[in-house]
Amino acid sequence: MRYTATADTILKKEPIQGSRLPDDQKVDVPEGKTFGIKQVIETDGVHSHVELESDAGSWWIFLPHWDTGEAKPVITPSTTGVVTAVFTLKQANSSQLIKGSLTFFEDGNQVLTVVASSGQPRFQKAGSHTVKGLGCLPPAKDWKISTNGNNIPARQQAGIAGMFYHITPDPRFGRSELGLHRDANFLTSPGSAGCIVVLDSDTFNNKVVPLINGLKNKQAQINLSVVYT
Asked: How, if at all, do strands 66-67 and 83-89 pair?
């Protein structure tokens, strides 16, 4: 097997966001780099633990950054009923998590709005999107949410523990491995490492997940605007 990096990424010793690992626990990999894979040890959500050929050791990889050679489903974009999304949040320097909103539109008509957030308390003020592992998702109007989600076990990343929808382009603005998921730590340590998190788990599981999963055969991605005020 041969895996090729489809974006600038890293090999890492633990299946957690790369910005949280010390430098001696990760190796930078440029886009286009190909590795021979001796075996896949395990796959857990969006990460896979692989043993490299040529005695290069075992590493975890973030799967959305790699072409593993597996056939990908053909998705036909929808010409009507196109769903888009907007995340908004009023920025401030606050010791409490600031709540914003994530709204989905179908052909421009609002179909669902949920309470959501991004980043950690004190890292939701203007300019904090540059802080890796703490700051909110950088503002832009051309992000994409993949409709092909991954189910993340709680034992891997307790802050997710459920469906994770990758947000691209990735990497971008110095940030990487971000997505949309529920805030599984909302009651104990609310916030995210930069992902958009829906604060109420029932709302995410019973409204957001069915909406996105229902689009998989229509849209590969949902256009996302991130707007801060």
From this structure: unpaired
